[in-house]
């Protein structure tokens, strides 16, 4: 029987790193659901689309081919056949992806593609609504969290080598803003379902978190 494991949580909680490590340990496919929203944000920005016009974006998303494939150096994200793996992590995309993520009718076809990515395989999927919306019948559902200050420290340490202009206070405020936005949006807000297993990752390294999750699978 195929297994689906979901890992949800706020920005900086460690869900992406942990999900990748857990998938590798189990030999499962890793699915980054957020990559689909980033990929379409990239496409919409290139097209000069109004990111708040749900009608036009609905038409555009249906015309857009988004694929996430396994590559030698991790997942590859393709939009209409073009590799945009690096581009979707650009700060400009990060700043605007919340517009796409907040539109219910745009999310629907992207959720269908996220589900399709798990067809016929064991998978570990991570995001903000993987256990509540994308895979509501997943075999195990985890929710990772940590205090905003801890998450800001992690993000600062992760990004600082590539961006000397970053500061801890700015990252902390951004995390708090994203928390408010993700938890209060109408379309698929970030929340903990009654069948989730929660884990505070404060003070834990990746291997420690993975080991604790493995004990629950």
Q: Could you name the key traits of this structure?
A:
8 strands, 217 residues, alpha/beta, 47% helix, Rossmann fold
Please tell me about this protein's structure:
- The chain is α/β, with parallel strands linked by helices.
- The protein folds into 2 domains: 1-28 and 122-209, 3-Layer(aba) Sandwich (Rossmann fold), CATH 3.40.50; 32-120, P-loop containing nucleotide triphosphate hydrolases (Rossmann fold), CATH 3.40.50.300.
- The chain is 47% helix and 18% strand.
- It has 9 helices and 8 strands.
- It has helices at 15-26, 33-46, 54-62, 91-101, 104-116, 130-134, 148-159, 168-184, 206-214, and strands at 4-8, 29-32, 66-71, 74-79, 82-83, 123-127, 140-145, 197-200.
- The strands form 2 sheets. Strands 2-6-1-7-8 form a 5-stranded parallel beta sheet. Strands 3-4-5 form a 3-stranded antiparallel beta sheet.
- A hairpin with a 2-residue loop joins β3 and β4 (74-79).
- α2 crosses α4 and α7 (148-159) packs across α8 (168-184).
- The two termini are 14 Å apart.
- The model has no long low-confidence stretch (mean pLDDT 91).
Concise overview:
This protein is α/β, with parallel strands linked by helices and 217 residues long.
